[in-house]
Amino acid sequence: MITKLTRRSVLSTIAAASMLAGTTATTVAADQMTFTLATAGSETDMRSAAMAKVFAPMVAGFADYQPGYNATLFAQGTELEAISRGNLTMSIASAQELAQFFPEFSIFATGYVHQDAAHQVRVFNDPLMDPFKKTVEDELGVKLLSVMYLGRRHVNLRQTRDEVDVQTPADLAGVNLRMPGTDAWQFLGSALGASPTPFAFTEVYTALSTGAVDGQDNPLPTVVDAKFYEVTKQIALTSHLVDLNYVAFSKATWDSLSSEQQMTVQRAADAASAWGRLKQLDKENNLADFIRSKGVEIYTPDLDAFRTHVQAQYVGSEFAASWPDGVLEKINALGN
Ligand code: KDO
Questions:
Q1: What structural domains does the chain harbor?
Q2: Which of 2, 51, 105, 201 to mutate to test the pocket of ligand 1 (most atoms within 8 A of CB)?
Q3: Is the CB of 276 under 6 A from ligand 1?
Q4: Cβ(222) to ligand 1 under 6 A?
Q5: 96, 106, 176, 267: which could form a disulfide with 319 (CB 3.0–4.6 Å)?
C-alpha cells in the first residue's frame, strides 16, 4: 500500500519549494501564460474533453492550455504536490488524494454518502465546504475551483457470474479488487468486502488482462473509455461511490492574475464542469447495452446489503474520527 503522507512533513517541504518556485504559469508572450494540467485520464475522458473544449477557449485570451493525459506529466496521486511545489498549474483532483494531506476530505470519498451528481454540486457550493477549501488553499496552495462528475462506481470482475455471483459483500471475500493507491480508496475496497490492491489507473487494463487482479471499480463511462470490457466478464452495479473530482488550480498562479482574469478562470472551470457533468451523465445512462454487447453481464446486487455493510465499516474508523462535527449531517440534509 502507498505510504500515507504525514501532513506536517509534506506540507513543510512543499512550503519551502513553492516559495522558490513562485508562479507556475510560465510567461510565453507579453501577457500570455501557460496553464498546464495533469490527469491520469485519457484525452477522450469527458472531464478531459470538458477542459479542452470548454475551459481552454474561455481562457485563451490570456493563457495557453497545455494538458498532459494518461499520467504522462505526473503520476496519479502526485499532481497536488506538483501544483503546490510550483511545477504544475492544474489537476483533476480526487477527494481521496486530498485526504492524504487533510484526512477530513475522506468524508467526500466515503461510500454511499453522495447520492447523485446534483447532490455533489449542492455540497460543493454549500458553506459547509468553505473551511475545507480554505485549508487546501492556505496549507497546500491549491484552489478548488469547481466539482466534476466522474460517476457511480461499480464492481467490475474478470470472473463470470457462474464463478462469482456478487449479491452481498460476503460474495467479494477473497476477491482481489484493484483500487487506486491511497488509504481512503483502499479502505473503501475493504469496506465493500473485497481484498483491495493498489494499482495506478494506467496499469489497470494490463493488471486485468494478466489476472494480477480479479477486478476493478469505476463508472461505466470509464469502463468503456479504458476498454475494461475487453478484459472483464461482469459488472455488479454496486453504486458504492458517486465519485467526484475537483478542478484544482495553483494559488500562486491565481494570485498573479488580474481580478478579471480570475473571474474568467472561475467561469471557465464552472462551465467545463457543467458541460462535462451532462455529457458524463448521458454516457452513464446509455452505455449498459454497449457493454453487454461485448459479452459483459451487468446486474444489480442487494444494494441494501452493500450500503449497510459499507456504512457500518466507517463508523468508529480513523476516517470518521477526522470528520468535523456535524458535516455528515449537513451533507445528508442536502440530499434528496
Ligand atoms: C481510478 O484510478 O480508478 C480513477 O477513477 C480515480 C479517480 O479519482 C480519477 O483520478 C480517475 O481514475 C482518473 O482520472 C482516470 O479516469
A1: 4-150+244-284 (3.40.190.170), 153-242+286-325 (3.40.190.170)
A2: 201
A3: no
A4: yes
A5: 106
Q: Are 99 and 136 in contact (CB under 8 A)?
A: no
Distance of alpha carbon 156 from alpha carbon 223, whole angstroms:
9
Cell of 2: 502507498
Distance 150 CA to ligand 1 centre (A): 8
Distance from C-alpha of 219 to C-alpha of 241, rounded to nearest angstrom: 9
> What distance in Å separates the CA atoms of residue 300 and residue 166, rounded to the nearest whole number?
9
**For residues 183 and 7, is the Cβ–Cβ distance under 8 A?**
no
For 98-136, write each residue's pLDDT tens digit.
Answer: 999 999 999 999 999 999 999 999 999 999 999 999 999
pTM of this structure: 0.93
Contact assessment for residue 98 and residue 244, using Cβ atoms and an 8 Å cutoff: no
Please tell me if the CB atom of residue 120 comes closer than 6 angstroms to any atom of ligand 1.
no
- Beta strands, E only, the chain: 26-27, 33-38, 63-68, 90-93, 142-157, 176-179, 195-198, 215-218, 234-250, 297-299
Q: Does ligand 1 come within 6 angstroms of the Cβ of 23? A: no
Q: Is 156 close to ligand 1, i.e. is its CB under 6 Å away?
A: no
Q: What is the pLDDT of residues 286-308, one digit of tens each?
A: 999 999 999 999 999 999 999 99
Cα–Cα distance measured from residue 177 to residue 322, given in angstroms and rounded to the nearest whole number = 26
